[in-house]
Structures are given as C-alpha cells and as structure tokens.
Amino acid sequence: MALAATLLHNAYFCGRCCRHKALQPLLGPLLSDSLSKSYSSYRRPGSQPEKKTTWQNVDLSFKKSIEVLKTQLGMLKKETEDHLAGPEGQSLTHYMLEQTRVVWEFRSQEDLNKWVISSDVEIGGKSEVYLKLGRNNQTALLYGTLNTEVPRDGETKYSGYCSMRAKPLVGSFARKKYYDWSNFNSLYLRVRGDGRPWMVNIYTDPYFSHQKDDLYNYFMFTRGGPYWEEIKIPFSKFFLSSRGRVQDDQHPIWLDKISTVGFTIGDKVNGPFQLEIDFIGLLNDRAHTEEFAYETYEKNPPL
Amino acid sequence: FILMLSLTLGTMITITSNHWVTAWAGLEINTLAIIPLISKSHHPRAIEAATKYFLTQATASALMLFSSMTNAWSSGQWDITQLTNPSSCLLLTAAIAIKLGLTPFHFWFPEVLQGSSLTTALLLSTAMKFPPTTILLLTSHSLNPTLLSTMAIMSIALGGWMGLNQTQTRKILAFSSISHLGWMTIIITYNPKLTLLTFYLYSLMTTSIFLSMNSTNTLKLSTLMTSWTKAPMLNTTLMLTLLSLAGLPPLTGFLPKWLIIQELTKQEMTTTATIISMLSLLGLFFYLRLTYCSTITLPPNSSNKMKQWSIKKPVNTLTPTL
C-alpha cells in the first residue's frame, strides 16, 4: 500500500519535473496545477503533443521509492513539529507580534522553481514569456513579448496574456497545504516594472471543483522607472472573478486558506514587457481600516 | 424565522419519538433547516460548508434509516429502545458518530464551522448535537461499548491535537466540541445521565463563548487579542468561560469531567480514565493559549477594523460566569 503510494508519488514528481524543465509549462492562470490529463483527446494548439503518457513515466525501482518514502516521512515529522510549535510553525508570540512577512524571495534557481509561467501559447497565441534570475541573483525577471494576434480557431476573440503563478504548497505525501495569512491585511510587493499594468491574482483552492475557477484579482500599476517600487495592495481591494468574469456577488477574500498568488499581464498592447520582482511579502497595515472596497448591496431587495 | 421554527420542530420530533421513522424525520428536518442558515452569506466557503454538511448528514441519516430497517427486518418492531440486531447497532453507532462529529468521522466539522457565521456555528455545535445524542441515549444499552470508547478516546485525542495551532476561533471551537463529544460518549454506556449533564453544561459554556465572540466579532486569534479595548468585562468573563470549557477545577466545567472519571474508575476502566485525562491536557493547552491571547497579554496595538469598535448588541456578561 505504501509502496503503491510511493510509486504514484514518484510518477507525480517525475511528471512534474519533466514538464517544467523540458516543456514550456502549460498551466494557464485559470487552471490549477495537476497531472496531465489522460482522458481528453482535444489538444489545444499551443500545447505540445504528449509523447509519453504518465503511466509510462512510472519508475518501478525499489530503492528510489524507499528514498521517496524517507523524504515524505521526514516532511511529516517536520510538519508535526511545526504543529506543536504554533501557528504556521512559529511560536505564538511570533505569530501575535508579526507585522510583516516575506513569503516569496528570489535569490536562487530553487526559488524560481516555485513559480510556473504560462502564456497564451496554450490557446494558440504567439506571446512569449520567460523567467530568469536577475542581476546578482537578487531578483526575478519576468520578461517576454505580448502578442495580441488572435489564434485562428474560430472561437477565440481576444488573445495576448502572460502570467506567472506560484506553485501551491505541498505537504507530506502530496497533500495540499495552504497559507494562513489571516494576521495580515495587505500584500506588499517590491517590483520594478516597465509601466505596464499587471493583475495580481490570488487563488484560494476550494474543496469542491465547481468553485475551482474563482480567483481574487486586483491591479498593480507599475511605474517603469529605474527605481524600485513598493506596492501595497490591501486584501480588501481584491474582487472576485471566475474564469475571467467579474462576479456580481462580491465578498472580501478569506485569508485563512490561500493556495497561490499570480501575476498576469494582458493589457492588449503588443510589445515587450518586463517585470523585476525583489520579493513578495505580507503586511499588517495598521492604518488600513477598510473592510471591503466594493459595496455588497442586495440585488433583489425586499420591498 | 421559519428556519428557526423548523429547527425547533425537528429537534422536538426527534426527542419525543420512539419510532425510528419519526426520529429520522426529525433529523432530516433539522439538516434541511440549517442548510440555508449555513449558506446565508454567499461566500464560497459558506457554500462549501453547506455542501459538506449536507453530504455528511445525509449519509448519516441514510445509514440510520438502513440500520433501523435491518433491525425491523430481524426483530419485527420499530421501537428505538429495542435495538436487537448487532449489525444494525454497529451501523447506528457509525451513523450517530457521523452526525455528531466523532472521530473518525470528524473531518467535516471544523470546515463546516469555519464556513458558517458565528451564530450558525453556535447552532451547529449545540442544538444540532442534541437529537443524535438523545438517540444515542435511548439506544445506549445495546450499543457496543468498546467501539464507543475507542471512538471517544480518539475524539478527545484528535480534538486536542488538531486544535493546537489553529488561528481561527471557529475551528478551535470545533475541535473543542469534538473533544467534549468524546467525553460525552465515553460514559454513555455506563451512566447516560452523565452524558446528558456533560452535554447541557457544554452547550451552556459554548453558547456563552460563541455569543461573546459574536458581539466582538472575533473570527481569528489576532482579533481576540484586541478585544480587551472594547468590553473589558466581557473579556474577563470570556477567559473564565474558556477555562471552564477546559475543565479547570473551581469552574463548572470540571464537574462533568470529575464525575465521568469517577464513573469510569467504578467500572474498572482506570486506564481509560487516565488516558483521557492526559489527552484533555492537550486541549487545555490551547484553551490556555486562547485565554493568554485574549486576557493575560495586552498586545502592543489595538484593532484597526471599523466594525469591531462597536458592540453589536448589549452583552450578557452574566452567562459566562455560570
């Protein structure tokens, strides 16, 4: 039973690694990370044809599975210790007193591997996007070219988007883990853009799949100068959208179960873009008193 | 209003029933009535909570009906107190465990409580536990004690362990509820009256906690820390109630624990008694932590949310002192 589980995880990890390094990551900003599907036969124009199915990637070596089991048990042990230590693995006083926290930093290739980039190539468009470490390994540089040429498949009307999305946290035995940001009320980004407007998306991985497309978005307007910008986006400003359509029934984002954060550019302007990110952090802005930026009035008020 | 009425109706029907079908009907009425209450705010998490609640409770009701049917098949009568078929006893235990949220069927409980508003969470953890407990009481003489004790011990353990580093108050109360249910279940085959006592005291204490948290709108630990500025009296009484929930001696919450341990030792189950007392230490830890957060330490800041500066309704500070 454990062996079967470790084999499956082996395949999962192999599939993941291969897909990230060899092929352009094919995950769009609105689809979640998962194993490649083996059931649908339609292949979107931009995705590569699958040469090897997932089950062929299975590595049946015993030694490797023991190693995998050991790593997973190590992770489980660490999780138990974190659980004992306090919320989020830090002591309670730390949790009570913290006002800022850096969640993602870009100092090495490993940090870059926590992110996945995608563009409209998956629907047949022609934009390009690349992610690399910036100068002196201090920043991450997301750059590329946006191309708004619409793919000719008869049903797409607009095109031209590129995005970068964090990989969700994975606990021991490939369980989902979530971020708990309930102590904070703003997102703090240190970026150096090129003047183009970006959209920040937060995905709270829901339990049931009918809600899997709902995403909380807000805009990030960059200045473009040679100076670094520190952008603070309060969580009360994030609005709910699903598959790109802004929903009528808005509510503030709940911060206790956040899965990933992403950046998207899709401002319908043909041309190169560039975003340099130093770090992404959280801030508990004591001066921010807004609960929610959008009015939540009743659509059918009782007369 | 009509939902509250349906809830009361459902509970009454179940409590006063001695036929399986009426008991089941009352439980179903309760489930259906509380679903819109849970999903009242159109938040995805609330809807998720309502879906989870519906699925689990429906499964449990179906299992219960199935067990009563097998019992009726084998013994020819539908009386609740006469549950003779062993497999239907087992099924019924499983069904009630799912309904109540005993381990290993507790997984829905914290999420459902987290997704609902504070008052609905209160209803879910006190009022909705009452009908299944009565059914358990009525059938307690024919249920398998080993199974019940195992589930109870696991509940206490799990309630304590999982509640350790939660930051959301509703989830904390969910785990405390699971652990208290464990205490209630462990004594049910030996002395059902103690179960009732535990249940009443537990509902009283939980009600006061939920209502205090509702008036200061604390949904997470950090809000709890800044509640001292709003209603200092409430804060102190909240601390006392939390400690009472933990079971510390001079407070009321100790009474059920003491009586249960006494009864268990009378039944020659001293190891069980020791185990559960040790495990409730875990729970004590997080209750203490809650009280630490709320009353004993004064954080270097006060809340900056506009909503929390006003008290929602006049606060009953006397209830917690019970």
From TrEMBL, chain A:
Q: Any idea which UniProt keywords this protein has?
A: Chaperone, Mitochondrion
The entry lists its GO molecular-function terms as: unfolded protein binding
Principal localisation: mitochondrion
State any GO BP term from the record.
mitochondrial respiratory chain complex I assembly
Oligomeric state and interaction partners are given as:
Part of the mitochondrial complex I assembly/MCIA complex that comprises at least the core subunits TMEM126B, NDUFAF1, ECSIT and ACAD9 and complement subunits such as COA1 and TMEM186. Interacts with ECSIT. Interacts with ACAD9. At early stages of complex I assembly, it is found in intermediate subcomplexes that contain different subunits including NDUFB6, NDUFA6, NDUFA9, NDUFS3, NDUFS7, ND1, ND2 and ND3. Interacts with TMEM70 and TMEM242.
State the function annotated in the UniProt record: As part of the MCIA complex, involved in the assembly of the mitochondrial complex I.
Q: Which PANTHER family match?
A: COMPLEX I INTERMEDIATE-ASSOCIATED PROTEIN 30, COMPLEX I INTERMEDIATE-ASSOCIATED PROTEIN 30, MITOCHONDRIAL
Q: What is this protein called?
A: Complex I intermediate-associated protein 30, mitochondrial
TrEMBL record, chain B:
> Could you state a single Gene Ontology molecular function term?
NADH dehydrogenase (ubiquinone) activity
The record places domain NADH:quinone oxidoreductase/Mrp antiporter transmembrane at 17-282
The family database entries (InterPro entries) matched by this protein are listed as: Complex_I_Subunit_2, NADH_DH_su2_C, NADH_UbQ_OxRdtase_chain2, ND/Mrp_TM
One Pfam family name is NADH_dehy_S2_C
Signal peptide positions (record): 1-18
Single GO BP term: mitochondrial electron transport, NADH to ubiquinone
Respond yes or no to whether keyword Acyltransferase is given for this record: no
| Keyword terms | Electron transport, Membrane, Mitochondrion, Mitochondrion inner membrane, NAD, Respiratory chain, Signal, Translocase, Transmembrane, Transmembrane helix, Transport, Ubiquinone
Its chief place of residence is mitochondrion
Location of the protein in the cell:
Mitochondrion inner membrane
Q: Name one GO cellular component term.
A: mitochondrial inner membrane
Annotated catalysed reactions: a ubiquinone + NADH + 5 H(+)(in) = a ubiquinol + NAD(+) + 4 H(+)(out)
Q: EC number(s) on record?
A: 7.1.1.2
Specify the protein's topology with respect to the membrane: Multi-pass membrane protein
> Membrane-spanning regions, if any?
20-38, 50-70, 90-109, 146-165, 172-190, 196-213, 234-255, 275-298
Q: List, for all copies, the residue spans of the domain called NADH dehydrogenase subunit 2 C-terminal.
A: 284-321
Query: Where, if anywhere, are coiled coils annotated?
Result: none
Q: Which family does it belong to?
A: Belongs to the complex I subunit 2 family.
- Functional description taken from the UniProt entry: Core subunit of the mitochondrial membrane respiratory chain NADH dehydrogenase (Complex I) which catalyzes electron transfer from NADH through the respiratory chain, using ubiquinone as an electron acceptor. Essential for the catalytic activity and assembly of complex I.
The identity of this protein, by name, is NADH-ubiquinone oxidoreductase chain 2
